């Protein structure tokens, strides 16, 4: 029950991140530093993350991120108790860069190495920020993921459902591209939607007619495309108000789907008999205020505490990896230098 200080590394998508997190003897968590280098500008011309470019950028930026994280935490590598790294799932080149960097640090400084599942990192963040007790419900919604999970322990996650096609953030980004709203699609669609009329275009609510917690967002994208094409045929193009109305319609459809599927997950979760029922959101889409508020209202209606970590801890970061590392370390789950990078790694 001493202090535990872990350096975390994250490089599974398009952010190179390093962070130092300390768990104090009284159980509180302190983020001593959290450095995130985005790569958006490197991929901007390509309309998506280019794995090859991402991997090279991670390889050259990881060292810098680690140095900066240690400097900001005012610690040397020697003062670190363990090194945690995202070992998957993600773009394999990036994950390998991170795992190799972590192995080098662990071997060089004789520190324990801990491989962390990126999704577990997201799902455990509410314990870092709000000391949430197990079991709690998590809605993980980002550019790459969409899952409803019951977090039973730091190593047990029960998947209740998820997307059968696109992740919601991916749909935000694709719809933005379709209707001429600039990237990143999520925040820009949210901004456009503020002055939009959500009722002007009727978009579907996919899979709400089917039982269970699975979701689908690619049909929404197709419906937005059809609405756009009809506007182009009728008036030659899209006016700013059309973009705002389409944005509002799309955002409301995503919010409705997420809320109704989450509602079903709440029913399954309450059946488990949690003593202090709570739901946490994680992932970049949790930054969306309409979605966040809609989820919060439903959760509160159903008697659940609602936890939304600060935005910087919702999107990809290394503090969540360091924290997940702390949780694993406390369970005695340490890896050795044979730790493999895994492109696929279900929770
Ligand atoms: O968690 P994240 O940073 O990266 C991963 O995908 O793992 O999430 C990024 C995604 C992007 O697709 C972005 O468009 C979406 O989250 N996003 C949003 C908002 N801010 C970011 N989606 C809707 N509304 C937002 N305000
Ligand atoms: Zn992520």
TrEMBL record:
Binding site residues for Fe cation: 118, 122, 316
UniProt binding sites for substrate: 140-144, 173, 186, 190, 288
EC number: 2.3.1.234
Cofactor note: Binds 1 Fe(2+) ion per subunit.
UniProt-listed InterPro entries: ATPase_NBD (IPR043129), Gcp-like_dom (IPR000905), KAE1/TsaD (IPR017861), TsaD (IPR022450)
Keyword Nucleus: no
Keyword set, alphabetical order: Acyltransferase, Cytoplasm, Iron, Metal-binding, Transferase, tRNA processing
Gene Ontology CC: cytoplasm
Subcellular location: Cytoplasm
Keyword Iron appears in the UniProt entry: yes
Cofactor needs: Fe(2+)
Top EC class, one word: transferase
GO biological process, one term: tRNA threonylcarbamoyladenosine modification
Reactions the enzyme catalyzes: L-threonylcarbamoyladenylate + adenosine(37) in tRNA = N(6)-L-threonylcarbamoyladenosine(37) in tRNA + AMP + H(+)
Pfam annotation, one family: TsaD
Domain Gcp-like per the UniProt entry, residue ranges: 31-323
Single GO molecular function: tRNA N(6)-L-threonylcarbamoyladenine synthase activity
Classification via PANTHER family: TRNA N6-ADENOSINE THREONYLCARBAMOYLTRANSFERASE (PTHR11735), TRNA N6-ADENOSINE THREONYLCARBAMOYLTRANSFERASE, MITOCHONDRIAL (PTHR11735:SF6)
Function: Required for the formation of a threonylcarbamoyl group on adenosine at position 37 (t(6)A37) in tRNAs that read codons beginning with adenine. Is involved in the transfer of the threonylcarbamoyl moiety of threonylcarbamoyl-AMP (TC-AMP) to the N6 group of A37, together with TsaE and TsaB. TsaD likely plays a direct catalytic role in this reaction.
NCBIfam families: gcp_kae1, T6A_TsaD_YgjD
Family: Belongs to the KAE1 / TsaD family.
UniProt name for this protein: tRNA N6-adenosine threonylcarbamoyltransferase
The organism of origin for this protein: Litoreibacter roseus
């Amino acid at each position: 029950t001493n202090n535990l200080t872990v350096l975390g590394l994250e490089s599974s998508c398009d952010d190179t991140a390093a962070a130092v997190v300390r768990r104090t003897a009284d159980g509180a968590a302190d983020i001593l530093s959290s450095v995130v280098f985005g790569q958006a500008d490197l991929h901007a011309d390509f309309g998506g993350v280019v794995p090859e470019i991402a991997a090279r950028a991670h390889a050259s930026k990881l060292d810098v991120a680690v140095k900066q994280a240690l400097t900001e935490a005012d610690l040397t590598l020697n003062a670190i108790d363990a090194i945690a790294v995202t070992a998957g799932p993600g773009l394999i080149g990036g994950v390998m860069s991170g795992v190799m960097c972590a192995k080098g640090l662990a071997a060089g400084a004789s520190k324990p190495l801990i491989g962390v599942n990126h999704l577990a990192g997201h799902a455990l963040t509410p314990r870092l920020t709000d000391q949430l007790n197990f079991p709690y419900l998590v809605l993980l919604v980002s550019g790459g993921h969409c899952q409803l999970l019951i977090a039973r322990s730091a190593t047990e996650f029960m998947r209740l459902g998820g997307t059968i096609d696109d992740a919601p953030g991916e749909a935000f980004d694709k719809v933005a591209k379709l209707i001429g709203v600039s990237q990143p699609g999520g925040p820009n669609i949210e901004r456009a939607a503020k002055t939009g009329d959500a009722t002007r275009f009727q978009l579907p609510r996919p899979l709400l007619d089917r039982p269970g917690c699975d979701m689908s967002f690619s049909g929404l994208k197709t419906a937005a495309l059809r609405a756009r094409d009809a506007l182009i045929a009728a008036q030659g193009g899209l006016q700013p108000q059309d973009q705002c109305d389409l944005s509002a319609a799309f955002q409301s459809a995503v919010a409705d789907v997420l809320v109704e599927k989450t509602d079903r997950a709440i029913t399954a979760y309450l059946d488990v008999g949690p003593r202090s029922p709570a739901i946490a959101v994680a992932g970049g889409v949790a930054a969306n205020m309409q979605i966040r508020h809609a989820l919060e209202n439903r959760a509160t209606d159903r008697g659940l505490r609602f936890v939304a970590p600060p935005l910087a801890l919702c999107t990809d970061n290394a503090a969540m990896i360091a924290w997940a590392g702390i949780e694993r370390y406390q369970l005695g789950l340490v890896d050795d230098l044979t730790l493999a990078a895994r492109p696929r790694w279900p929770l």
